[in-house]
Amino acid sequence: MDRQRGNQSRMPLHLVISEKLREQILSGKYPPGSQLPSEFDMGVQFEVSRTTVRRAIANLINQGLVSAHRGRGVFVKERQKVIFSLSNPLSFFATELARQGVTGTIDPISFEVLQPPPDIAAVLNLTNAEPQAYRQQKIILTNQTPIALDIAYFPLDIGAALSEPLQHGFTYATLDQNGFSLERVEVTLESTHATHQVGGYLDLPIGAPLLIYRYVAYGEGDRPLVCGEILSRGDRASYSAVLTKKDLGSYTN
Amino acid sequence: MDRQRGNQSRMPLHLVISEKLREQILSGKYPPGSQLPSEFDMGVQFEVSRTTVRRAIANLINQGLVSAHRGRGVFVKERQKVIFSLSNPLSFFATELARQGVTGTIDPISFEVLQPPPDIAAVLNLTNAEPQAYRQQKIILTNQTPIALDIAYFPLDIGAALSEPLQHGFTYATLDQNGFSLERVEVTLESTHATHQVGGYLDLPIGAPLLIYRYVAYGEGDRPLVCGEILSRGDRASYSAVLTKKDLGSYTN
DNA sequence: TAGTGGTCTAGACCACGGC
DNA sequence: CCGTGGTCTAGACCACTAC
What we know:
The structure is a homodimer.
Chain A: H1 13-27, H2 39-46, H3 50-62, E1 66-69, E2 73-76, E3 82-85, H4 94-99, E4 104-114, H5 118-123, E5 133-142, E6 145-154, H6 156-161, H7 163-168, H8 171-177, E7 184-193, H9 196-202, E8 209-218, E9 224-233, E10 237-244, H10 245-248
Parallel strand pairs in A: 3-10
Antiparallel strand pairs in A: 1-2, 4-5, 5-6, 6-9, 7-8, 8-9
The first copy, chain A, binds a DNA duplex through helix 3.
């Protein structure tokens, strides 16, 4: 039942401190945007070494409650999420974002022909004779701050034909507007940790939670049009869906 | 383009070390289940202090690549995920898990009447005259290891009527089998960091990614039957859906 | 220049697991 | 018992930000 210790028994000091700070942050003593005392001051206040204070702050950073800035201080993070609709992915970014009062923009990183990894090649039905595909990497920003990294693979003809609009527009909408009707999209959602590299793109520390939206979109004749994954900042994005009875099925099987 | 440093320029030592270890893990030099050298040995090998080695290992833990065990060592994590279907939530745990070759069980934590927070009360249409509801907390295990924490709120009558089956069975299926047909389920999926408390339940370190499945299920007459959230281990769970054309809508709006 | 967080050290002691 | 990781200290130096 009570799998955690009370505040005094056998919890490490850094945890006692970070839990106390956590409560103070959530209770509003340190509201979003406010600054915590300096590491030195906290060391004096809690009568511990600076190393231990830093460990406590690391706990808070790992929980996404604060962020630290060299030369400035430690600040409580502001939090509000953007909601993406699974049910209506065509309005995926453009319409949905506007409705939520944010501007969505695209920052292209790369767009090139290469030989994709085997799992991608299999999904796109690539043959040994034509093993290549376009790979696009772009960053999605809302209100000028990066929120997601999109890595997409296109068959050669689609990538070549839509080279320009794909690089600066939203994928599903661009395909739909250029005669590639989306008949079916297979989606999985998962969560992982930010690596150092991805963290660099999305301005996140190592280990921060990411939402992964993996997708394969099929057109007419079950032809795969695009596949890829969108790595979204877990602290800034969420996905929503409404399931009605015809989707729900029954428990009998 | 190249937003990260080369391996020698101005990257902190702990990052250089953790990135090197990361490559070795991903390349197979340290396969899943294998043990890394001890902190002391690594300190000798990389010619750094034990503190710096520990910082590097913390980076790997934060990325979910390894886990540390006092008295034993640091081991590369095994990774395989369980897939939950959004499209067919009634077979949510029971059928789906069996198909994936794992056994799903329930470990009840609590089942009690209390006054839920305002947002929950609003969703359940609670009145000031009847502000209470049942809250259930349970842990979902696959193959005896905890994978998710489920916190659900039920209206008083449903909680009282189905007290027994709800505590040990899967929520959607239990409701469906007892005459509460699910007409509509509203779902959002997000990701957060594990707190110390939740980490204790799910055997995760502070800050580990969690998938949050928030749901409100409505029965006949749009009556809310249950709402709540499932906090799943990000390293063990994923959600899938298939969207067909009738779901997809068009881009015109 | 003063104050902040970031890195790194050398060393001590403790708690746990396995032999 | 030894080897492992976990905690904590005191102190040094650096890099960045603001004034």
